[in-house]
């Protein structure tokens, strides 16, 4: 059994865990959701739900991880003392690998658009147009590049890989967002974007659809249910006060999502001002891949020479957001292969990278049938159900005294604190009901 890694500092853990949580969803999903769902009213509901729903589940993962000091399969097997625990862990392992398979394709697109802005700077027109034309060879090449970057970081292990890079990449991400916000805010049309983003429409605050969207966004933006936070929790020192660092992770994640909105929504209205179409036929704001690969590139082109540099910075930002999430996803199956199957870390990383890359290539070659299907299967169905399972393990299966003992190792007075008064019954009764209702609604 190899010596387990551990985060060397609190900031290292917070930035790595927040990096895992801050992904492309924060940057391309959240801003459009806000603007389409009553502006700041949605932001308020989202912040509330992030703490009411996502934070308790995040804490369940961190506590289980640190107490068992194990990967997801062994951890759930230990606390439930049953095959069901291990099977749930394997289900999480498969889900996270499939999420990474489609995520790597999107991460590859970020690389190709980043390379395209470099090609434009060098006036390499034919290369530039190949880089942004949708094709299987381009998709496979850049998906492979993205997986290589991810694997290289994970090879370094917890301290020399994940922590070292998260501590560099996350501050860079925030600086890039802030610089781009400043630049975009001075462009004509930005004011309308700011008001769409910041002016609340409180009449919509209790709309069921708004609540479901905000709940989904809070849940998925913290990358819950698939074991990334459980595995990161298993690398946290026993001296740390878990409820506090869990709250820090949640705050950084929410903060980056809100910052991303301050960039994307004004940028969309600047694009509108420059003649780029930002609404769909139904009158909703364009979101997702169309926003990132159609609206914003059109905006960068419309602002002339500076546009190339803005595009370069923007896609660098997107690559960082994608990488900080993909390294945590790859760590979940790698930790399992190293600890349960006794593989050397290097071998485990390359085995998992190859398997996931083959899955990605299969999706690319059957793009129309598989891409949307895999996304729906993993994020809409599997992830909420895994979150529900984790609540049941933490709330019903695992012994209360064992949980308290784990929290007390970093905070001896935990029993009298607010967290312990609320969290155990909350994760037992409230979270499962909310997740179940949300899940049933999203299928209906």
From TrEMBL:
Record localization? Membrane
Which keywords has UniProt assigned to this entry?
Membrane, Transmembrane, Transmembrane helix, Transport
Which Gene Ontology CC terms are recorded?
membrane
Reading the lineage from the top rank, the first entry is Bacteria
Q: What residue intervals traverse the membrane?
A: 39-64, 84-111, 139-158, 170-190, 210-233, 245-271, 291-320, 348-367, 373-398, 425-443
Under NCBIfam families, the record lists: Na_transp
Name the record gives this protein: Sodium-dependent transporter
């Amino acid at each position: 059994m190899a010596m387990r890694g551990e985060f060397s500092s609190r900031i290292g853990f917070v930035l790595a865990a927040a990096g895992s949580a801050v992904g492309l969803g924060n940057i391309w999903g959240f801003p459009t959701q806000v603007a389409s769902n009553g502006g700041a009213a949605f932001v308020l509901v989202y912040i509330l739900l992030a703490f009411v729903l996502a934070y308790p589940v995040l804490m369940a993962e961190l506590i289980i991880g640190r107490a068992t000091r194990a990967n997801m399969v062994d951890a759930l097997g230990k606390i439930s003392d049953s095959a069901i625990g291990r099977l749930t862990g394997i289900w999480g392992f498969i889900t996270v690998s499939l999420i990474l398979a489609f995520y790597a394709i999107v991460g590859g697109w970020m690389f190709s658009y980043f390379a395209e802005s470099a090609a434009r700077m060098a006036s390499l027109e034919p290369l530039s147009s190949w880089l942004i034309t949708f094709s299987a060879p381009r998709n496979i090449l850049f998906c492979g590049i993205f997986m290589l970057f991810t694997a290289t970081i994970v090879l370094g292990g917890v301290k020399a890989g994940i922590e070292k890079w998260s501590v560099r990449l996350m501050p860079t991400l925030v600086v890039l967002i802030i610089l781009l916000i400043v630049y975009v805010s001075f462009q004509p049309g930005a004011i309308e974007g700011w008001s769409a983003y910041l002016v609340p429409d409180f009449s919509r605050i209790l709309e069921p659809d708004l609540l479901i969207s905000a709940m989904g966004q809070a849940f998925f933006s913290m990358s819950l249910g698939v074991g990334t936070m459980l595995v990161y929790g298993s690398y946290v020192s026993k001296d740390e006060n878990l409820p506090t660092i869990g709250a820090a992770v949640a705050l950084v994640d929410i903060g980056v999502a809100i910052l991303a909105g301050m960039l994307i929504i004004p940028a969309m209205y600047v694009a509108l001002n420059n003649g780029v179409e930002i609404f769909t036929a139904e009158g909703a704001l364009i979101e997702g891949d169309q926003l990132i690969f159609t609206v914003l590139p059109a905006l960068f082109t419309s602002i002339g020479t500076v546009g190339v540099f803005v595009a370069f910075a923007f896609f660098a930002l997107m690559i960082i957001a994608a990488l900080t999430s993909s390294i945590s996803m790859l760590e979940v199956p790698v930790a399992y292969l190293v600890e349960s199957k006794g593989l050397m870390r290097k071998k485990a990383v390359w085995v998992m990278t190859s398997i996931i890359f083959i899955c990605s290539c299969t999706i690319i070659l059957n793009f129309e049938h598989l891409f949307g299907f895999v996304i729906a299967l993993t994020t809409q169905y599997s992830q909420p159900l895994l979150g529900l399972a984790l609540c049941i393990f933490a709330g019903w299966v695992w012994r209360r005294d064992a949980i308290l003992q784990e929290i007390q190792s970093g905070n001896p007075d935990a029993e009298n604190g607010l967290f312990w008064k609320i969290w155990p019954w909350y994760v037992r009764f409230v979270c499962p009901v909310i997740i179940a209702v949300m899940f049933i609604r999203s299928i209906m």
